Every structure is written in structure tokens, then in C-alpha cells.
Amino acid sequence: MHPAYTEEHQAFRALVRRFVETEVTPHVEAWEEAKSFPRALYRKAGEVGLLGVGYPEAYGGTPADIFYSIVLCEEVAKAGSGGVSAGLLSHGIAIPPIVALGSAALKAKVVPTVIRGEKIAALAVTEPSGGSDVANLQTTARREGEHFVVSGSKTFITSGMRADFYTVAVRTGGEGMGGISLLLIDRDTPGFTATPLEKMGWWASDTATLYFDECRVPVSNLIGEENQGFFGLMLNFNHERIAIAANAYAFSAVCYEEAVAWARERVTFGRPLLSRQVIRHKLVDMAMHIHSTRCFLEATAYRVMQGESPIAEICMLKNHATQCLEHCAKEAVQILGGAGYIRGAKSERIYRETKVLAIGGGAEEIMKELASKHLGW
Amino acid sequence: MKILVTMKRVTDYERKVKIAPDGSHLITEGMNFVANPFDEIAVEEALRLTKAHGGEVVVFSAGPKDAAQQIRQGLAMGADRGIHLLTDKELDSDAVARLLAKVVDQEKPDLVILGKQATDDDANQAGQLLAGYLGWAQGTFASKHEGLEGPEEKAQKPGLAIEGGKVHVVREVDGGLETIALDMPAVVTTDLRLNHPRFTTLPNIMKAKKKKLDEVTAESLGVDLSPKVKMLRFSEPPARTAGQIVDSVDTLIHKLKNERKVIA
């Protein structure tokens, strides 16, 4: 175990594990088929402090280092539903810019109620015209007195259907990243609508396209300085990508464990699958990838904890972890055979949820480009 | 009111325990350890009682350095402070009871609540022996009338009723429930259906770090830990043998009657 894990991290892990085993895992199949999980889960998670990890005490959070966030991602992922992980923790990308840059009034309005699980927060950056190319986003906000008037649309927004608050990237200035601001937009704002999107995976979370038709948003909802929004988004990147890596690591481990359990039980031609060299070697390869991902994850997280911002390593970590997941999910489904293709196997679901982690939070190709710029050649 | 509760460090009941090849001991290396679930119920009950009546909850554990984790869990649930009897020795129930009797002498609690047994050795003796050493009344296998699905559990009310210097304990006995009234101070042991222990919370895990946890030694309490019960051997339960498929109900009945002799 990495030395950064203390007794309190272990106690927190025990808490999240118990919470997930009691409140999440037994319901995952039903929630997946229903393509939603109950809003009450946010409140339950809020009550035991899961939504406040790393946020200031003044807003109801619990200051905690990045290893607590990793523990949270890993343990929630053990339920085997990327949709639950993504939906329940969607505030993890929506509120950090508010906490870091928002006015006292904005923070007091949004952060405590989200951390208690009463309200849901979502981040809205990607647009139908493009995702990774944030600097060229098209949604505009023009100033009219004490309001911004917002027009445009956002897509692939996690918790997009039922969020109460949206942290939205808009263009308030000229072209490029220097013209982007972040606005907090309330779902009740006239002119705001959302339509649901059907997805390959992540069924338990709602994903939406958002439309802003001349939405009037008070100037006081500006998060940070006008035209400084890109900086606010950048604050998210390191943490989000490490969280994605932690998710990918944990889902890889879920696939591995399901494959081992299956190989032990399943008898073919008179012998358990586990006795076959081909299967054992597949499992060793999976274990090897999982182990290296974990070491990479913890080593990188440790540097972030020391106050560093190792951007190249974080980009490579995200790719390494999602590639590990693609490998492990593919092999687990193969080892499970027909059973791995049938709804109900965790590996079946996770297999459908590999791509979203290799695309969201910075696509694999973007990660490589960014890493290449930071490797110091 | 002051309540002393126990929190034993036990092997994780969800993992398979390995036995040394010669059967002399359990292999604990690499094992996961948790708090005894019956003790978690004891802590929960104590917290509900002090919420209703005021007072202090003190968590006690005897065990190696790492047993502090289980005490901290009790503190994270809401207990006020901990006492850790540091020892690497294997303790039998009698040693634990004698240690607890000394702690009771010092702490003078109004109530001692223990799990009815620990899930590792299932001895079910420490509470009874403690009551014997102290000369106190005991209420074992504490439960409650409406069980865990009723409105009182939803409202997180205590299952033990304290009134006029007595504690009323609903006990699970053969064939039903009986209610007894004990003069306080008293010893109570908890059964499964007394309460649902609460989750800890992240803020409370962080706060627990700062709560007082005193370490004491058996020598300082003047207790001899030499066991009275000696563990002779551990062995695995016999492996299940393969079943048989019979071709008809008549054959089944014949076999049960004449081969297995389980029906007449």
C-alpha cells in the first residue's frame, strides 16, 4: 500500500465500502434498466460526507487530500456501474470552479446544498460543435445591464436532465480562450430546456443536451472574473483526470475479480477454466496492467498532494488507466464467454463503459498532444 | 450517565480464514480486520442512550497496536474517548472480563454494554464473566420488541429503557422475548436485532483523530493475562461430499429411511 494512505483513509474506505454495499450495489441492476437512480441517493451520500470530500468546512465539506478522492472513486466504482459513479459525483467537476473563484454569496448559495446532496450540480462545457476545442466554444452571453443574456447549447452533459445548478462555459468576450467566462445557471431560468440522450453505457446516469434561449442570468452568477473562465476550467483538469484514472483502475479490478471468480467456477471439458494456461495467462496480464495502473495512479497523486502539477504524467496516467480498462474489460468478457455478453454480468456493462472514459475529461489523442507539450523536449 | 462499551478487533467475516498447516494457529498475515459487528451494535446503543439521557461513551479494546483502528471507529461513530489495553497476547474471555473489571473500577460507568459474542471465536462469555466479577446484574442478548423494521428503529430510539435507576432489557430467549429490569450499574450484551449501527461519516472520521485515546497495559492494571482456556487445535470443517441424483421420490424416501436413517 502507498505510504500516503493513513489510518483515516482506511476508515474512510471502510465507510464508503459499507455505504456502497448497503445503498448502491443491491440496486444497480434495477437502476441500470430504469436508466436512473433515485435522487435520494445524493442525500444519503451527503449525510455520511461522501459529497464533501476535499471541500472547505465552511461550506459543509471536509478538507481532505487527493487520496481520499481516489478512495471514494474506487469504492463507488466497485458497484460496477459507471453511470452511478458519474451521476452521483457529477458535482466533482461542477463546483470546484465555484469554490475556487466564486463570490462568497454564490458559494453560500450553491456549495453547501450540493454537498448535503439536496441539489445536483453539473458542468456544461462541450457543445454540439465541439468538445475538446474548448477555446472555440460558441455559446454566447451578452451583457444587458445587471444580466447576461445566454444563447446557445451544450451537449453530453452528465446529470444534464436533473441538475439544479449548471456551471456553464460561455463566450463573453472575443475569440479564443481569453473570451470565455463561467456562469452559474439555475435550471429554473426562463429559456432553459434540456433533452435526454441515449448512450452506449452509463445508463444509470442522465446525460442531456441543454438549450439556452435568451436566458437572463444575473451578473452576480459570474464565477470568477469575466473572460477568465478558461482558468477556472483548467483548475478542474488535474483532479478530474486523476479521478477518471481511479475509476478506470477500479473498474479494471472489478472485471478482473469477476473473471477470476468465473474461471474458478466454470468447468469445461471436465476441468475448471482456471486450470487452463491460456486463461491463467490472460488473468496475469490483466493483473499486471491493473498493478501498474495503481502504482502510476498513486505515484502521480502523491506528486499532486505535494503541490506539484505534473501535467504530462496526469495525461499519460489517464490514457494508461483507460487502456488498462479497455484491455481488462475485453478479456473479462472473453473469459466469461456467452455469460459475459448477457446483461447482468458486471463485465458486460463495464465493457460498454470503457470508451466514455477514454473520451471524456480529455480524449486520448488530446491527452497525448498535451503530454507531448509538457515532456520538455 | 457514563457508558463503557467494547470494540473488539476481529478478522473480517467476509474473508476466508486460513489455518496454519499444523493446526496450531490462524494465519492472520494479510487478513483484513474489522470491528466485531455485535460491538458496533453496543456502541450504537450507547450513543442513542447518551443522546436521550446525556452523558459520556467510553470505548474499550484490548489487543495489538492496530486495535486502535477499531476504537477510532467507535469514536468516529460518536463515542467520546477510548481506552486501549495494549497487548500482543491472545486473550481468553476470562482475561478480558478481568481487565474490564479493573477498567470499571477506575471509570465507574453506570452501564457496560458489550457485544454478546465476537465473530472470531464466538465465545459468548466476556459479558457474563464481567457481571460475575463485578457482582452486577446482567442482561444478555438485548433485543427489542418490534425488531429492526419498526418506527422506533427508524427514529433511532434506544432499545434499552432507563427509568428510576433501572435498565429494562428485552431479551431474546427460546420461544420469544422476555423483559427484565436490572438495577444499575449493570452489564448488557447485545444481540443482532437491537439496532442498525450507524455509518461513520467523513467529518467524524477526521474528528475522531483528535479524540482522547489512552493506552494502558495489563501490568498497570495488575491483571495476569495468562489464559485459563488453552486453544488446542484449529481445523477446517469437513469438505462437502458430492450429492447423489436419484431417479424417483420412492428411491429418495428409501435412501433417507434405510441408508441415512434420517426419517422413520
Return Rg of chain B in Å: 21 Å
- Output the radius of gyration of chain A: 21 Å
Question: Of all protein chain pairs, which has the greatest interface, and how many residues does each chain bring to it?
Answer: A-B, 19 and 16 residues
User: Which segments of chain B are poorly predicted (pLDDT under 50) over 5 or more consecutive residues?
Assistant: none
Count of helical regions of chain A: 14
H/E element string of chain A? HHHHHHHHEEEEEEEEHEEHHHHH
Spatial order of strands in the largest sheet of chain A = 1-4-5-8
> Class of chain B, according to the CATH hierarchy?
Alpha Beta
Global mean pLDDT of chain B: 94
Helix proportion of residues of chain B, in percent? Answer: 25-40%
What low-confidence regions of chain A span 5 or more consecutive residues with pLDDT below 50? none
Shape verdict of chain B: globular
Give the H and E element order of chain B. EEEEEHEHEHEHEHEEEEHEHH
Count of the separate structural domains of chain B: 1
According to DSSP, the number of beta strands of chain B is: 14
Task: Give an overview of the whole structure.
The complex is a heterodimer of chains A (377) and B (264). Chain A has three domains: 7-115, Orthogonal Bundle (Butyryl-Coa Dehydrogenase, subunit A, domain 1), CATH 1.10.540; 121-229, Butyryl-CoA Dehydrogenase, subunit A, domain 2 (Beta Barrel); 231-374, Butyryl-CoA Dehydrogenase, subunit A, domain 3 (Up-down Bundle). Chain A is an alpha+beta fold. Chain A has helices at 7-24, 28-34, 40-47, 66-77, 82-88, 91-94, 96-101, 104-115, 229-265, 277-305, 311-336, 346-352, 354-359, 364-374, and strands at 121-124, 140-144, 147-158, 165-171, 180-186, 192-196, 207-218, 222-223, 267-268, 271-272. The radius of gyration of chain A is 21 Å and the shape is globular. The mean pLDDT of chain A is 96. In chain A, the strands form three sheets. Chain A has a four-stranded mixed beta sheet with strand order 1-4-5-8. A four-stranded antiparallel beta sheet of chain A has the order 2-3-7-6, with no helix packed on it. A two-stranded antiparallel sheet of chain A has the order 9-10. Chain A starts with 6 loop residues before the first helix and ends with a helix. Chain B has one domain (2-236): HUPs (Rossmann fold, 3-Layer(aba) Sandwich), CATH 3.40.50. Chain B is built from eight helices and 14 strands. In chain B, the strands form three sheets. In chain B, strands 1, 6, 7, 8, 9, 10, 11, 12, 13 and 14 form a ten-stranded mixed beta sheet that branches. In chain B, a hairpin with a 2-residue loop joins strand 10 (161-163) and strand 11. In chain B, helix 2 (68-77) crosses helix 6 (202-208) and helix 3 (93-107) packs across helix 4. The interface between A and B is medium-sized, with 19 and 16 residues.
